[in-house]
Amino acid sequence: MSLILTVTRACNLRCSYCPTAKDGWPSLSVDQALQGLRLYAARGGGDLKLFGGEPLLVPEVVKAVMDEAEATPEIRRVYLSTNGLGLNRAWLGRIARSEKSILTISLDGAPEDNRRFRRTLHDDVPDAYDHIMRLREDILRTPRVVITQTIPPASASRAAQNFEHLLDLGFRRFNLLPGYYIPWRMDQLMALQRGFNEIGERIRDIWASGGNLYLRNLYTWAPTPFFNTGFVVDSDGTIHPSNLGLSSKLDDLRAQTQVGTLDDPPSPEALAEKTELVNQLLRDNLDEGVWESTQAVDAMLTELCRSLYGAWAERRRGAERVA
Ligand code: SF4
Asked: How far is the CA of 17 from the centre of ligand 1 (A)?
């Protein structure tokens, strides 16, 4: 079970497919975030995920958590997910020095698509694509960086081209993220299927020619599509078994998923009991079309992974023979 710290819900972007970014919510303080980390470590620990909103809008919290995690043997890895706007060379240096840290940057492909869907909140917020491009060489030199390519319905027909664009930029570590919890039309689902087929072929070709490509989706499985299940500390200090309440459509469910607070944490049994309820809550409260779309895109992503496992195992065997 992972620790998920939703350090803030604030974000300097308003991506068209994003269910989470919100103003007017508290962010976790350094003390609260460390309290969550210590609680989790005392229960055995594992992986820690820093999510938002945009976590780098509260850099002091992220730094404090990363430093403490580094010194805490019970914390295995620290995942930081960002839209990239808060990154600079100092942050990349920090990630490079900490072997526990894994950085995930959202970049959806060609600049037109990235700009179309990843809109800035205010005029003084820089363009995310341009910002990441300015840091591209440094990012490419930083170990353990993964690019999340979000694929919303409106650009599903260009999923493979956008993937190719990211390859052209030199990136080789990816996480594919079709739009979850939003409606997809049938033609968009078919376009996504074609896109996944082409991406799958491209990845197999890279592996077959001895090239390196890491696809995080091959290593992840979640009982609930998209949302993280685990020991979830929301930005107001409440504790839940899932971060599904990040979605504004599912905000009302927070009262049902809340199982404690940082000052009154749940027993492991109480948390496990609530975890069992999450999928049913989603099914009961989501619009049927949205739930069906979510199931459909999740099944396509799962099928893509299944279709890649054989080639991936072969590539690993080849790499071991060379070593
Ligand atoms: S960067 Fe992330 S949190 Fe911010 S609006 Fe986009 S998807 Fe939402």
From this structure: 8
